Amino acid sequence: MRFVCLIYNSADTDGTLTQAETNEIVKAHFQFDEELRSKGILIHADALEGPDRASVLRVRDGTLSATDGPYVETKEHLAGLYVIEATDLAAARRIVARIPCARVGAIELRPVRLLALPQ
């Protein structure tokens, strides 16, 4: 099964970690990524720019509208993601529990929906 792990960081902790703490988490992510990659678990991983670099696009009645970020009024923002392969939800949860940013943020685990074209 394929899962998406959405990493949310608290806006309250942005800027409160020391440079050394930030470097430690980044280094831990690179090590974690390599471990997952070597086991064939990691499909894709990326860090995202902050919400101030985001925009939301919508098409309504054929008209495109765009709203610049930050686009949500929340104390957390989407900071990165992993796409992983795991045998089941329990295995995916064990993997997520080891994502370094889980120590300072939250991880949303969501199964990827397998779609087939209609016949």
Give a concise summary:
The protein is an alpha+beta fold. It has helices at 19-38, 89-96; strands at 2-10, 42-47, 55-60, 63-68, 76-85, 105-111.
Tell me what the structure shows:
The radius of gyration is 17 Å and the shape is flat. The chain is built from two helices and six strands. It has one domain (2-111): 2-Layer Sandwich (Alpha-Beta Plaits), CATH 3.30.70. The strands form two sheets. The chain has a four-stranded antiparallel sheet with strand order 2-5-1-6. It has a two-stranded antiparallel ribbon with strand order 3-4. It starts with a strand and ends in an 8-residue tail after the last strand. The longest helix has 20 residues, at 19-38. The chain has helices at residues 19-38, 89-96, and strands spanning 2-10, 42-47, 55-60, 63-68, 76-85, 105-111. With 119 residues, the chain is of the alpha+beta class.
What's the SSE blueprint?
Blueprint: E1 2-10, H1 19-38, E2 42-47, E3 55-60, E4 63-68, E5 76-85, H2 89-96, E6 105-111
Antiparallel strand pairs: 1-5, 1-6, 2-5, 3-4
Helix content: 10-25%
Residue ranges: pLDDT <50 for 5 or more in a row?
A: none
Average of the residue pLDDT scores = 86
In DSSP terms (H or I, runs of 4 or more residues), the helix count works out at 2
CATH fold-level label: Alpha-Beta Plaits
According to DSSP, the number of beta strands is 6
Q: Which structural category fits the helices and strands?
A: alpha+beta
What's the end-to-end separation, in Å? 24 Å
Name of the CATH architecture: 2-Layer Sandwich
Radius of gyration: 17 Å
Listing every helix as H and every strand as E from the N terminus to the C terminus, the arrangement reads: EHEEEEHE
Major sheet summary line: 4 strands, antiparallel
Proportion of strand residues: 35-45%
Going across the major beta sheet, what is the strand order?
Answer: 2-5-1-6
What is the name of the CATH superfamily? Dimeric alpha+beta barrel
What CATH first level would be assigned? Alpha Beta
Global geometry: flat
Indicate how many domains the architecture comprises.
1
